[in-house]
């Protein structure tokens, strides 16, 4: 491990931060050493998760929040999880490009990475980068999930405050009455609130909360906020509510509890990644065992048992 590189990163040198995060993201031995050092320093940053269906305006809202927090003199880290190719596992979208102007600010660091097949909207790499940015002294860390709909629920175990974005005219009125993503939010943010359909969406979500159809995380009653991220409308109100929630979290012992949950989820997803890699190799090495079932449809149980035993031996 390069101690000088770590020292420069802690002092805020952007290139050093980028080099260390890249090593961490790709699970290199050196990267894991950096992560261990930074985890020991972490536990102070306030983390905000932003999720919602594709096109809800998550990146635009994050850009507006960056402006707000940097004006307050805070350091802001952003981790953006993009959909990934099922073949290369690389990122499809590259959200970082949409915020290129924000990266010119020395108090902002943005990293976009692929979900790499994780179904809960968050990957092991994303949590590792949050932990690292926390250890590097960032005050606010914003996580944007992959945005795949009702399955984006792992964010509950990763951040202090969760914002679920919804937009008028997209069917989110119905989503407000469904399980899954509409049960995880501390805040439900109606974006593009200048549209005429916004009031109906606001009322639908409000009704779901008041009728007890949404989950109250740790006793916090979810709130609904109307904004137009593109026009900057409602942002002051949203950040005011976020401050209130931060006070709630810090005052009730939840701040430390959610950091513990984040680290538990990191270990879980890291081990899942390792197990999946072993499984892929086991399947490749046992093509002959599998071929009889695959070609003729016979001896399914025999094939599963044999491959499973070989998988267990490898782990």
UniProtKB/TrEMBL annotation:
Alphabetized InterPro entries for the sequence: AAA+_ATPase, GTPase/Isobutyryl-CoA_mutase, GTPase_ArgK, P-loop_NTPase
Pfam families in alphabetical order: MeaB
Keyword Chaperone (UniProt): yes
Segments traversing the membrane: none
Keyword Coiled coil: no
Signal sequence, start to end: none
GO molecular function per UniProt: GTP binding; GTPase activity
Residues in AAA+ ATPase domain copies: 44-180
Keywords noted in UniProt: Chaperone, GTP-binding, Hydrolase, Nucleotide-binding
NCBIfam families: lao
Record-linked PANTHER family: LAO_AO TRANSPORT SYSTEM ATPASE (PTHR43087:SF1), LYSINE/ARGININE/ORNITHINE TRANSPORT SYSTEM KINASE (PTHR43087)
Protein name according to UniProt: GTPase
Protein's organism: Candidatus Aramenus sulfurataquae
Taxonomic lineage: Archaea, Thermoproteota, Thermoprotei, Sulfolobales, Sulfolobaceae
Gene: meaB
């Amino acid at each position: 491990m390069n101690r000088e590189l770590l020292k420069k990163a802690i002092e805020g040198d952007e290139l050093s931060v980028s080099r260390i995060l890249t090593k961490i993201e790709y699970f290199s031995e050196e990267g894991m050493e950096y992560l261990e050092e930074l985890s020991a320093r972490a536990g102070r940053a306030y983390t905000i998760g932003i999720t919602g269906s594709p096109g809800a305006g998550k990146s635009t809202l994050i850009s507006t929040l960056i402006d707000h927090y940097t004006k307050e003199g805070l350091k802001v880290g952003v981790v953006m999880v993009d959909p990934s190719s099922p073949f290369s596992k690389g990122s499809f979208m590259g959200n970082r490009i949409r915020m290129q102007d924000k990266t010119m600010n020395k108090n902002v660091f943005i990293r976009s990475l692929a979900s790499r097949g994780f179904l809960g909207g968050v990957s092991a790499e994303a949590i590792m980068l949050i932990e690292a940015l926390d250890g590097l002294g960032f005050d606010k860390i914003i996580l944007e999930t992959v945005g795949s709909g009702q399955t984006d629920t792992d964010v509950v175990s990763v951040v202090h405050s969760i914002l679920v974005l919804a937009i008028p005219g997209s069917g989110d009125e119905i989503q407000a009455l469904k399980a899954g993503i509409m049960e995880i939010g501390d805040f439900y943010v109606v974006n593009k609130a200048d549209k005429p359909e916004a009031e109906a969406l606001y009322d639908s979500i409000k009704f779901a909360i008041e009728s007890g159809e949404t989950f109250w995380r740790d006793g916090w009653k979810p709130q609904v906020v109307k904004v137009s991220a593109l026009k900057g409308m409602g942002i002051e109100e949203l950040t005011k509510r976020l401050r209130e929630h931060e006070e709630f979290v810090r005052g009730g012992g939840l701040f430390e509890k959610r950091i513990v949950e984040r680290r538990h989820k990191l270990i879980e997803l890291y081990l899942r990644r390792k197990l999946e890699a072993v499984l892929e190799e086991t399947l490749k090495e046992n093509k002959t065992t599998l071929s009889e079932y695959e070609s003729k449809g016979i001896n399914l149980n025999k094939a599963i048992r044999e491959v499973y035993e070989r998988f267990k031996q490898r782990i």
